[in-house]
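Need tokens for this chain, all 233 residues.
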Amino acid sequence: MKRLRPAEAIVALALSGCIATPPPVAPPVTPPGQPLIPIAQLPGWSAEDHIGALALVRQVCKDQPTPPAWCASALAADRLGEPGAKAFLERRFRAAPVLGEGLLTAYFAPIYEARHTRDATFSAPVRPRPTDPASAPDRAAIEADPALDALAWMRPEDLFFLQIQGSGTLTFPDGGRMQAAFAGSNGRPFVAIAGPMAAQGLIAARATAGDVRDWLAAHRGPEADAVMRLDPR
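Here are the structure tokens for all 233 residues:
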């Protein structure tokens, strides 16, 4: 995390215009003490990767189950060069200074392959939220519950890490995408399986999350399932 100086601490605050060639629009409402700034005036703006920034905006719009209205113009802007992308962002975004110091943080949402139907590799069901998660059994029982439809199918080790992370994006061979979001907890204590795995000599004492995942993938089936069930949450 980077602690920002006042001159650097700016956040995207408002969007204007929702069509490819927008008419003049009224300026956004300025929050008290937070005057909006045209992003073209930001230090270093001209040197930014505007095509990459616009691509990120478009991806955020694609990932929304119900995109907000302003996404229509962003999703239509798929063939803009660098000058066009820069102009697009300047026309629709404003920034506001953060008074004092700010703390820039980020949230990791992984992307995993998935399937609409089960096969030998994608054998772990993505289940919906039980009616009462607090009284639900452990992870293994929820995943085996035939009363809960499978929303998608994933590699078991990928589903395990998705559940720990809490949310992510599932991608399908047909180009479709699905957002998997946190919906509830069964209230069971979280057990980090790396410790028991190291104690059993399955992985090194200082193994990474990637090492854990690689072991689970290499031992997919009853052996890996037994290890993942050590975490009931």
